[in-house]
Fold Ig-like domain-containing protein.
Amino acid sequence: MADFSRILLLFWAICLAERAQGSLFGIVEPFPKNIYPLEYTSAQVTCVAFDSQGLKVPSKIQFMRRDEYNFYVKLEANDNLSFENKTEIINGNNTKLSVTLFIRNVTVEDDSLFGQLGSYECHAFAVGDVNERARHGFSVSVITRKEIPIVVVPDTSILQHNDDITLVCNLTERGSLSTPLKRISWFKDGKPLESVRNPDPQNSQDTLGPLKLKSVSVRDGGNYTCLLEVLLRNVKAYNVSDHTMIHIAPWLPKPKEDIEEKAFKGGDVSFECAARGFPLEVEWKVKRKDQAVQSCINGSSGHYKIQRDSVYDPYFFTISDVQYTDRGSYYCCLPSNCSDNIDDNCQRFILRVRDPLGALWPVIGILIEAIVLFLIIFIAEKRKKNKEKGKMAEWNSATAPPMTGTGDKCACAKWVKLQLPRRACSRHVCSSCLSQFMLSTTALAY
Ligand SMILES: *[C@@H]1O[C@H](CO)[C@@H](O)[C@H](O)[C@H]1NC(C)=O
Ligand SMILES: *[C@@H]1O[C@H](CO)[C@@H](O)[C@H](O)[C@H]1NC(C)=O
Ligand SMILES: *[C@@H]1O[C@H](CO)[C@@H](O)[C@H](O)[C@H]1NC(C)=O
Ligand SMILES: *[C@@H]1O[C@H](CO)[C@@H](O)[C@H](O)[C@H]1NC(C)=O
Ligand SMILES: *[C@@H]1O[C@H](CO)[C@@H](O)[C@H](O)[C@H]1NC(C)=O
Ligand SMILES: *[C@@H]1O[C@H](CO)[C@@H](O)[C@H](O)[C@H]1NC(C)=O
Ligand SMILES: *[C@@H]1O[C@H](CO)[C@@H](O)[C@H](O)[C@H]1NC(C)=O
Ligand SMILES: *[C@@H]1O[C@H](CO)[C@@H](O)[C@H](O)[C@H]1NC(C)=O
Ligand SMILES: *[C@@H]1O[C@H](CO)[C@@H](O)[C@H](O)[C@H]1NC(C)=O
């Protein structure tokens, strides 16, 4: 026993000597913070032990609580508490130990002041030590729910377009009177609309007014949030908010009007749905000739595509690579649970599909006919010419009778109608007459 106490004494002396020597082992930065967790949320605190001289190696850090009678309790991992250790080697062989305490669900029992177990300390031990070498305190101040103000934005029913509405932000609970209100604001879909700094709920001039929307349109639909920024216990910035969604009932401005769309085979065609509303859903249906209505067609096949630029914009239904089988009636309808009803709340598009060469066929026909006629006449002409070659040879400029009439037309008309001797026309006149004649006969054929 005496040996034991002697060893203990010796050990103690060594410890003291080392302390006197000025070992720099201790709890170092970042120091454990005083935290202000909200009741029923999680919280964490980290302590770091290190010896900058590298003389002592940290072995463990314990989290302790000390009550008003200076009675210490060591915190152990359990359902509500856990620890995480991290060691880091600095400059080759100098160890830094960080231990984090996690409180899973903070209650008033965890408060330094109001919890039975009292205030918090981290105790850091070095390798070979029995007693801790350094300690550092921190506080846990639990903010109860009662201290937090509450704002309420009443729910709105679904509006019709052109309705008026007034949104109010009601501070239903002030929370702790010592909690400063820093700012209260209206937001629409995350974008600020108006705000009041340091509002005074007692003074209607000095608080956030109601939001008045007159004759609402689709673009007024959306998420309206009232946000109150407070400073709990004068240290912890905290936001409380409530929101309401403005819905504008969908409607079809001109449901009875049919729209005819013409498309060429192989091309694309788009229908713009006239339905409006917020949020807007539509159903697309198709009725092909002699077939049943196909409801709720969607973009999954790739042949059809349903698009819109934004939640406020109209829907477009696009058919790519249009085929003759796509002919029929397409309907954009207000939601009907995919029923096959196309008579109510639907807008109709009629799709006609044409051959892209369709417009060219008459022209091509005329051209082919003209060429064939030309060839027939040309060949007939050539044969006649060959027969008459003997006769023609007899004639020369001196024996040829004078031309009757003047100009191509005159000579031509006579040649055609009166079968005047060919010698009356020069070769040039004849060929231009021939093409004129041909065109006039082709035109007659139509
Ligand atoms: C935290 O504890 C409270 C009361 O003990 C309980 O009502 C709440 O559900 C708990 N929350 C979580 C996240 O466990
Ligand atoms: C952290 O270290 C302590 C001793 O310092 C040990 O009891 C505990 O199990 C360790 N925890 C983890 C998660 O490693
Ligand atoms: C964990 O906290 C709950 C209250 O939130 C308490 O009833 C329970 O006893 C605690 N568990 C332990 C192991 O401390
Ligand atoms: C750390 O390493 C240095 C040289 O790299 C050595 O001088 C020193 O003694 C070592 N310290 C410890 C505690 O091992
Ligand atoms: C605000 O809330 C209080 C309490 O719920 C209620 O009496 C009051 O009528 C509300 N004020 C407005 C403008 O909605
Ligand atoms: C509306 O906005 C609030 C906060 O800005 C958000 O919490 C909420 O989820 C939003 N609601 C919808 C339906 O987008
Ligand atoms: C509170 O809301 C304001 C405005 O959106 C934002 O700038 C701030 O970071 C929020 N504060 C907290 C603690 O969430
Ligand atoms: C699209 O329609 C097909 C059949 O009409 C259906 O099987 C599929 O689930 C639909 N896809 C979506 C995303 O609605
Ligand atoms: C669609 O069906 C749901 C549930 O089956 C119903 O609540 C809703 O009113 C229906 N909508 C329409 C437009 O028929």
